[in-house]
Design a protein that fits this description.
496 residues, alpha/beta, 6-stranded mixed sheet
């Protein structure tokens, strides 16, 4: 079981100052490995004792049997020094073996809790942070903490101990010099012990720098742990959802921005009904679709599913009911199959094949290892259209009661789009659909159309009725139709 992350001290805190307290707050990650850490420390201190004992044995050998030409006593003392050396090597090996398991366990638990926290944090947080900064905290910063907890901390204690002890020994040697009773063996031991201080003194600066780096890394990790999720899971569960979606007086403003992106939005989508959301660029279509699965929370009004406010639903339950596919899909550096199964882990091969057919994503079978081909971070091994189709297949595979498609077909050529739309009609027949539409062909997927203007829905009705009675709607579709015709002509030229 991974350790619980440190209790947050503030809600949206500023970058906490680095210091010993930053490392101290992460001490709970060491507790499961405390026996191993104690064993490492004991082995290290025993090694220090042996490294000091060896020069003393050599002193006894020089001042005793060598000085008195007693060859019979040289061998036992030599074997004792050799035995101490072998034992010291065994202790070093034991310490490193125990250390590798312990510190990797600390790093694994920290990374697991960090990833869990990142998944709890809302879209507003991830929109504020650059992905490279978060990645740096999950890799570089955790590695700094691992190196210090497994190497720096132990050797800081060892080096201080060795400096202290070798210095309680050199002082005795200095007193002997004062009395004029320095023997050859004492001189050799004195020089050997002096040389043994080179490593502790030389490495102390490196270890202190490592400690400072670990303290800074801990502060950066705690900055994420200290950020409270603005979107908190509710407790209600819809065991048998019907998918009745309503937006009642919905308003939304991004944090830190005074102007409302949406205001007074009302929309009722019955179970099994599909609504096409149409509006000019920047009218708030994507923001509206993000409110349904609670990627953002409304700042006014409410969004309900089957009469229950989505803020009262368990997040897991809500996101089983609602599946989304966006224009810029999120894919992960894993196989195509694993990306698909994120939508539904228990899906069979037949289910996967059906979803791929709906999304016209059969290209995955032509990849070097088929569905088991790794597609790279954000699916960069695929084209834009392929990424969109794979994300659409994942959403379809989840078999949601509410399917939200935010301009999911924008990167597809006209012919592929038509094939996808034909297949989507079958899927949307069994789900409540919200489809952000730019093309007339996409609008025809819907039972009715909602026109979004100035941050609110101004008209709702059938496509033909709005086309005949609402000039703004007619102008939007006319502009999109010209673009669609140009794409069609270009595609035909390419095919020719």
């Amino acid at each position: 079981m991974p350790s619980q992350p440190p209790a947050p001290s503030t809600a949206y805190s500023a970058h906490p100052p680095a210091g010993v307290h930053s490392l101290w707050r992460l001490r709970r990650y060491l507790r499961p490995h405390l026996p191993a850490m104690i064993g490492m420390l004991v082995a290290a201190l025993a090694g220090v004792g042996l490294s000091i004992a060896i020069p003393l044995v050599i002193k006894a050998m020089i001042d005793g049997p060598i000085t008195h030409h007693d060859a019979s006593a040289i061998v036992p003392l030599g074997l004792l020094a050799l035995g101490f050396g072998v034992l010291e090597a065994v202790l070093v090996w034991t310490r490193r073996w125990v250390q590798s398991n312990a510190v990797l366990g600390v790093e694994t638990a920290l990374r697991s809790d960090l990833y869990e926290r990142l998944q709890q944090l809302p879209m507003a947080f991830h929109g504020h942070w650059q992905s490279g900064q978060l990645l740096s905290r999950a890799t570089t910063d955790l590695s700094s903490i691992r190196r210090f907890s497994g190497f720096g901390l132990i050797f800081l204690i060892i080096n201080i101990t060795q400096l202290t002890v070798v210095t309680l020994v050199l002082l005795l040697g200095a007193l002997a010099v004062g009395r004029g009773s320095v023997s050859l063996g004492t001189l050799v031991a004195f020089i050997t012990l002096m040389l043994s201080l080179v490593w502790p003194v030389a490495s102390l600066g490196v270890i202190l720098a490592m400690a400072q780096e670990a303290m800074t890394a801990s502060a950066r990790i705690l900055e994420i742990f200290d950020t409270e999720p603005a979107i908190v899971s509710g407790t209600a569960v819809l065991a048998e959802p019907r998918g009745h979606l309503r937006l009642e007086g919905v308003g939304f403003s991004y944090p830190g921005h005074g102007d409302a992106v949406l205001h007074d939005v009302d929309l009722d989508v019955a179970p099994g009904e599909t609504v096409a959301l149409v509006g000019a660029t920047g009218s708030g279509k994507t923001t509206l679709t993000a409110l349904v699965p609670r990627l953002y929370d409304v700042t006014a009004g409410r969004v309900t599913v089957d009469g229950v406010d989505v803020r009262d639903l368990e997040l897991t339950n809500l996101r089983q009911i609602v599946a989304t596919a966006f224009e810029e899909p999120t894919l992960f550096s894993m196989s195509a199959r694993e990306n698909l199964l994120l939508g539904r882990a228990d899906a069979s091969d037949e289910d996967i094949a059906e979803a791929l057919e709906v999304a016209q994503a059969g290209f995955v079978h032509d990849l070097p290892w088929g569905l088991d081909t790794r597609i790279g971070e954000q699916g960069m091994a695929l084209s834009g259209g392929q990424r969109q189709r794979l994300a659409l297949a994942r959403a379809v595979l989840a078999r949601p009661k509410i399917l939200v498609l935010d301009d999911t077909l924008s990167a597809l050529d006209v012919h592929t789009e038509k094939l996808v739309e034909e297949a989507l009609r079958r899927v949307l027949a069994n789900a409540t659909g919200i489809v952000v539409a730019h093309r007339a062909s996409t609008v025809l997927l819907a039972d009715k159309v909602a026109l979004l203007q100035g941050g609110t829905i101004t008209h709702v009705g059938e496509h033909s009725h709005l086309l005949a009675t609402v000039p703004a709607y007619r102008d939007l579709l006319a502009a999109d139709a010209e673009e669609e015709l140009a794409e069609l002509v270009e595609d035909e030229e390419v095919r020719a």
